[in-house]
Specification:
alpha+beta, 50% helix
Length: 272
Amino acid sequence: MDNRKFLPVIVIGVIALVVVIALSSSIFYTIQAGEKAVIFKKFGGGLDKENIIGQGFGFKAPWNDLHVYDVRETSTEEQMDVLDKNGLSINVDVTVRFHPIYLSVGYLHENFGQDYVNRLVVPEVRSAVRQVMGRYSAEEIYSTKRGEVESGIKAETEKTLGDNYIQMKTLLIRSINLPEQIKLAIENKLKQEQEALAYQFRLEKEKSEAERKRIAAEGEARANQIINSSLTNNLLKMRGIEATTSLANSPNSKVVVIGSGGDGLPLILGNN
């Protein structure tokens, strides 16, 4: 049997195998956990935004490009100088946590590419911080309305990023730094306000105590007035007689002298 007739087939097979091995990195791919991918088909309609590739092994035509995105939650920290509504410079340190919306990776790639953090997230966070803080004074940002400022920045950033295929998880203002002179002035003002409130509280408390004493005194005076108006001579004599009778019946030794003065009340002398 002449095996030479199979030689061309063998050569073609070896060449094909070499080509496959050489192009294996362009044909086969593996998407890791926490990743999504989209394919750009050079000869088949361009970027396939609708079919998002999940984790696992796959293959593609060697002339198509695979774009892999890490869709796990990540964060970026930004330190910036912003102006309050009076033009005062404030240094702010912000952290934002986010991840791409899984099924919108194709649109994210089309609009911003894989450098979306620097092209989209960072500029939008900076813009939201500047816009919101520009509505408040340094004192409000530093003390009384810090929570309101933080909520406003979160709301604006979340909406903008959400409209551009990014899910924001949270935004934190880690620190707000003012010029030392302004900071001391605000702290002194807040201290004075607290002292004024404490003084006002003491005044109100003293007024309330004085009112309580006045009402108690008026009540006591009214009670004495009622008692005095009811104490007649006959009533006093009757009470004296009742007391004398009660004492006379008690086992204690005593001397009872029946009074003959103007009130007629008895004088009681006893050992106990």
